[in-house]
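Q: Sequence in, structure out?
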Amino acid sequence: MDNKTPSMEALERLVNRYSGLLYRHSLMMLGRPTDAEDVVQETFLRYMQKAPRLNGEDHEKAWLLTVAMNLCRNQLRQHKAHPATSLDGCPEPIAPPADTAVLEGIAALPDKVKVVVLLHYVEGYKVREIAARLHLTPSTVKMRLQKGRQLLREYIKEERI
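A: Exactly. Output:
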């Protein structure tokens, strides 16, 4: 390992400290969890490749956020230049999901609520784990889960009317 490459301990510390922040910012800019995850991974990869000399936590945070936001802008430009093809003309799947209203309802949730709902109900994280990952208090996570359940009930009720 050369002197320029950051130690695994330093990288692990940065990932633990800033991954939730970078993910939230990326998700807000891009609106797609998978794209946000890609940006976070690419940000830390760039950190490993560049090994910048950062003076303190404020400088670390600013450098990582700048890289992540630039990657988000690049991805948005790419999506604009190469828009996704609509699947409207494709035939229906052989066995559609039993109740797509729940999936559509989750997709319609506000981003802050959607992230918590997905982490808890889809990924199986506990409230404390989500709180630590997103740098929130457990009570904030519980409130967002409650809000998500309420909004999903309303969405499903409207869909079935």
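The chain is about 75% helix and 0% strand.
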